[in-house]
Write a structure and sequence with these properties.
Elements: H1 10-13, H2 28-45, H3 48-70, H4 93-103, H5 126-146, E1 151-153, E2 158-160, H6 167-179, H7 182-195, E3 203-205, H8 206-224, H9 227-240, E4 254-256, E5 261-263, E6 271-272, H10 273-276, H11 280-290, H12 294-308, E7 319-320, H13 340-352, H14 358-375, E8 376-378, E9 385-387, E10 389-391, E11 396-398, E12 400-402, H15 408-417, H16 422-440, E13 450-453, E14 462-463, H17 476-488, H18 492-508, E15 509-510, E16 513-514, H19 533-546, E17 559-561, E18 567-569
Antiparallel strand pairs: 1-2, 3-4, 4-5, 6-7, 8-9, 10-11, 12-13, 13-14, 15-16, 17-18
Helix pairs in contact: 5-19, 6-7, 6-8, 6-19, 8-9, 8-11, 9-11, 11-12, 13-14, 15-16, 15-17, 16-17, 17-18, 17-19
The structure holds 1-deoxymannojirimycin.
1-deoxymannojirimycin (DMJ) binds at residues 341, 404, 474-475, 534, 538, 563-564.
């Protein structure tokens, strides 16, 4: 059996431009002169009525062509074999547009040269309006059945607690603000002001609470300048600082906010690499907002420590020991679970600090080269680009890709927009298309948690194992679509987003909200009865931003978006 052709050459695979046909010029001019004379003779034989009919037909055709040209078309440029189903129109466009006029929320915005903040004017078209309605539907269900609890179980109508921090309210509040939902924003803000406390004697996950709660509080503070958000963020940040109390300064995974103590998880001595390297944007912003360097110093020291550790061409194992400060040897290398946002925050920290910390960029560039060399492969038979994993101390290549890895096209596009090499963008385009196919492959138009790829096959490039077929309505694909849309302006990405949005509406929507699903391969998937806070915080936010006619509503030159979709301002240093 031959070796599979899985080598990656982005230059060779890049733009698939059809060359024009070659014409033979032999006797061309003579032939043309004869046929012109024939046409003129036939034309002279026509009656006046026949000529008028021909004129009318020409005018009608030109008008139709002009209308077709000016109307919005699906642009396909990534791969010329891509077939995009025409997105279904939003039901009753006229009605929706009337509602847009009537209900469009307006926000008074503080805006000055010294403290610039974004202006949000509510939904501007029917697709955005539909997403706002989805958010309100989810908010209503949560409010009725789980208010103040972390998550809603939307099928049973029961609350679910993980950290007991009202996660859904806090995490999704800036989405409400961006959508211009004043009422929802005000009731969420009131709950945070009156009810959100961090004094419970309870362990929480350091990373999750940082990206979801601290990140959200800082964004809301930045948007509104309401000191209440900053006070809460400061209180939480001071308690979370306990995580850095390990011998190496690499954070422990669990923190008891009430007692301000921290420890490794019960099942291991190790922390997760992506977790300890995905708190820096938030801790830095907290320092800048409070004028207290303590937070930034502790978090930045972690990145510096990891910078000095040996790696496989910039790629990191997914576990690190907070006592010794060293990676777990032989641990998996992946851009999926437990590895993903290490790479994301290298680039984003560099951007957050005005491109002034060079080692972050160097580590990012090296890592992306490492991804190309060791993790990126093409499937068979259609050569789809995907990012696999290395296990057993880099000895074994596993051709599987988590949905989480679909954050990468967005990050690559962000890097390219900031001057990084063209092949990063080509890789982003190809990988995003593979992510699209993980949705399009199923009757639900929803993607599974994990997709497996064939390196040698004559039939299917990818398949889904039953154990991996669930969907948590994760945001990474929508996130990357939005980055690519902002960077390129290509509306195909909006159409892809609209297709997956319809999958959510059709299969995940239940009377009280939106539910995770057990099997995206099923015609009628069984609900898992959980609405994750990132569905409202991230998935719906990215879809709303993606569908905007103005692609710079959150301008990537001014904002860096944390791993939970909370925008934070970019600084000069
Ligand atoms: C979110 O909590 C964050 O995006 C995190 O970085 C990865 N996992 C979820 C969403 O899938």
């Amino acid at each position: 059996m031959g070796k599979p052709d899985t080598n990656i050459d982005f230059e060779a695979q890049a733009p698939l431009v059809k060359e024009g046909d070659e014409w033979s010029t032999h006797n061309l001019h003579d032939d043309q002169a004869v046929s012109h004379r024939k046409i003129i003779r036939r034309w002279n034989r026509l009656s006046r009525l026949q000529r008028s009919l021909v004129y009318a037909a020409v005018i009608v055709s030109i008008t139709l062509l002009a209308l077709l040209y000016t109307s919005k078309t699906n642009v396909v440029y990534v791969h010329n074999e891509i077939k995009i189903a025409q997105p279904e129109p939003v039901s009753n466009d006229t009605l929706v547009n009337d509602l847009l006029q009537a209900e469009k929320p307006r926000r008074t915005v503080y805006d000055s040269e010294t403290n610039e903040r974004p202006v949000f004017t509510g939904p501007g078209n029917a697709r955005q309006y539909a997403v706002v309605q989805s958010f309100r539907h989810a908010w209503r269900g949560y409010k009725e059945h789980a208010w103040g609890h972390d998550n809603l179980k939307p099928v049973s109508g029961m609350p679910y607690d993980w950290f007991s921090l009202g996660l859904t309210i806090v995490d999704s509040l800036d989405t409400a603000y961006i959508m211009g939902l004043n009422e929802e924003f005000e009731e969420g803000k009131e709950w945070i002001k009156e009810e959100l406390i961090f004094t419970r004697n309870k362990d929480v996950n350091f990373f999750e609470v940082t990206i979801r709660v601290l990140g959200a509080l800082l964004t809301n503070y930045h948007f509104t300048q309401d000191e209440m958000f900053l006070d809460k963020a400061k209180d939480l940040g001071e308690r979370l600082m306990a995580a850095f109390s390990s011998p190496s300064g690499i954070p422990y995974s669990d923190v008891n906010l009430g007692t301000r103590t921290a420890h490794a998880p019960e099942w291991s001595h190790y922390s997760t690499t992506a977790e300890v390297t995905t708190v820096q944007l938030e801790f830095r912003e907290l320092s800048r907002a409070t004028n207290n360097p303590m937070f930034e110093d502790a978090a930045a020291a972690v990145s510096e420590k990891i910078h000095h550790l040996p790696k496989k061409h910039g790629l990191v194992p997914i576990f690190i020991n907070p006592n010794t400060g060293h990676f777990l040897p032989h641990a998996t290398i992946t851009l999926g679970a437990r590895g993903d946002s290490y790479y994301e925050y290298l680039l984003k920290q560099w951007l957050q600090t005005g491109k002034t910390i060079n080692y972050l960029l160097d580590d990012y560039m090296t890592a992306i080269e490492g991804v190309r060399e060791f993790l990126a492969k093409r499937s068979s038979p259609n050569k789809r680009l995907f990012i696999g994993e290395l296990t057993a101390g880099s000895e074994v290549y596993n051709p599987k890709m988590d949905h989480l890895t679909c954050f990468l096209p967005g990050t690559l596009a962000l890097g390219h927009a900031n001057g990084l090499p063209d092949w990063h963008m080509t890789m982003a385009e190809e990988l995003l298309y593979t992510c699209y196919l993980t949705y399009a492959a199923h009757p639900t138009f929803l993607a599974p948690e994990i997709t497996h790829f064939n390196l040698i096959s004559t039939t299917d490039d990818m398949y889904t194992k039953s154990a991996d077929a669930h969907s948590l309505l994760r945001p990474e694909f929508a996130e990357s679509l939005w980055y690519m849309y902002q960077v390129t302006g290509n509306t195909t990405y909006q159409d892809w987003g609209w297709q997956i949005y319809q999958g959510f509406e059709k299969y995940a929507k239940v009377p009280n909200g939106y539910t995770s699903l057990a099997n995206v391969k099923a015609e009628k998937p069984v609900p898992r009865d959980m609405m994750e806070s990132f569905f409202m915080s991230e998935t719906l936010k990215y879809l709303y931003l993606l569908f905007s006619d103005d692609r710079f509503v959150i301008d990537l030159n001014k904002y860096v978006i944390n791993s939970e979709a909370h925008p934070l301002p970019i600084h000069k240093s």
